[in-house]
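We modelled the chain as a single entity of 119 amino acids. Its sequence is:
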Amino acid sequence: QVQLVESGGGLVQAGGSLRLSCAASGRTFGIYAMGWFRQAPGKEREFVVAITWDAGSTNYADSVQGRFTISRDNAKNMVYLQMNSLKPEDTAAYYCAAQPVTSTEFDYWGQGTQVTVSS
């Protein structure tokens, strides 16, 4: 089992920045990749970005490419999401997720942190 706890959400004006953090604990040695997803009210959850735990390879959604940056600190079992040039449409609950090496899915999820971007 892997436990994930997000932090860093809040209210920011359009054009501003926020940094989300995700702390992983438990069987972190079994993680293949970490990802961030988001869900806005009335919409389905959508993929934002993912990073492989060992190699650090990244994959971004087109909507955040060039504005968001994912990073990880393996020694601290932390994943970060730096969000710049925020737009009102980035408003959503942001979730950290972990994909085990034994799975093709993100099986572990945090409780989410709210990001609200005002215009």
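As a brief sanity check on the tokenised model: The chain has a mean pLDDT of 96. DSSP finds no helices and eleven strands in the chain.
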